[in-house]
Structures are given as structure tokens and as C-alpha cells.
């Protein structure tokens, strides 16, 4: 639901109750707008994500994978 600022001020308890029970509530002031959401929704949106390094380190193990360099001579190329 969308509220203008004056109504939201006068009925703040209702705005909060609706944000908790029905979902985000938008409050507008002229051309600006803000959204009131529950703490649970906020936590879902801003949840802590693992770092890129942790993501890579948590991948499959490379143990047993042959990563040795082939030391045979390169082929001859005429330039």
C-alpha cells in the first residue's frame, strides 16, 4: 500500500502492522518515496554473503587431479 507522509505519521502503528502482516508499505513525500519493511524481510535482503575467496575455497577438491606441466619439447614453428 502507498501512504502519503502525513497519513503515515498519523497512523504509524497501522503502517507498521501492515508491513509485518501484509508486506512492504510505501510512504511518499512529494517526489520521494521510502519503503517500510519488517526486520525479517530486511535480513533476507541484506543477508551476509560469503566472500569470493570463501566461495572458491569451498568448491570441489583438486586433490588427485593431474595438474603437472607437460615438459616435452614444443613443436617447431617457422616464423
From TrEMBL:
Coiled-coil regions listed in the entry: none
InterPro entries, alphabetized: Antitoxin_Phd/YefM, YefM-like_sf
Record organism: Paludisphaera mucosa
Family listed: Belongs to the phD/YefM antitoxin family.
UniProt protein name: Antitoxin
Pfam families registered for this protein in UniProt: PhdYeFM_antitox
Family annotation (SUPFAM superfamilies): YefM-like (SSF143120)
Reported function: Antitoxin component of a type II toxin-antitoxin (TA) system.
